[in-house]
Amino acid sequence: MSFAMTIKSLTLLLCIAIIVGACSTPEKPKNQQDIGTAFGKSKTVTYPAPPVPFETPMYLQVGQFVRYGITDKDGKKSIASYSVIGHDGDVWVLESYSLTSGNESWTQLKVAGLDKAMVSRSSDDINIITARTRNNNDAPTEIDGVVLSITKGIYKDALSHWTLKPTPIGKDDVITVPAGTFAGTMKGTTIMQMFGSSLSATGFYHPDVPISGLVKSTSSNGVEMSLLDFGTSGAKASF
Length: 239
Description:
Layout: H1 3-24, H2 29-40, E1 46-47, E2 65-71, E3 77-88, E4 91-99, E5 104-112, H3 114-120, E6 127-135, E7 141-143, H4 145-158, H5 160-163, E8 167-177, E9 180-194, E10 197-205, E11 214-219, E12 224-231
Parallel strand pairs: 1-9
Antiparallel strand pairs: 2-3, 2-12, 3-4, 4-5, 5-6, 6-7, 8-9, 9-10, 10-11, 11-12
């Protein structure tokens, strides 16, 4: 078997494993309870309108985090969070977290070129150095070698949340989400490339929110994201 055929086979097996895992995971009462609790919390704080409309998010710093509540077109809810847990020179360590009714997972990425990508607003400038994952109570898994070379594109697509530049289509909207009320948000559109297809979204952005500035969004596939919580410090590695 040629090296090219081996790569194609591994990629196919990886995709099958992801799909089967997602489809075969039974719902867990604790996960459903935790999701409901997260969605049920709300803050009464109001963040004032910025002096100028949102253009780019604040500079990255270790400790920043955002947590979103996600509702799909069928009304199923889940949680997604992103945090900055390490920094050394040009290298950042980022962590993402996902909680669904049947699964809890973490991904830690050590990446170079993120500072450049935050300016160019292109994930093409990012280089994935290492990746670690953990699912539920399993031991962490190091992803390297051939598997990392295969999945780098997927991880880069996932990091587009950090680098997308919204196209402004409005301003001065007041948006209320569980994390609070944000005055003077910028309304903008984005287009994300995932698995070879495009996904558009309309979102509201505010400079007080770290990482991407996103407060709330609705995607062309019917998925809604609302900011549940955020902070500019305090985030630490989960494993």
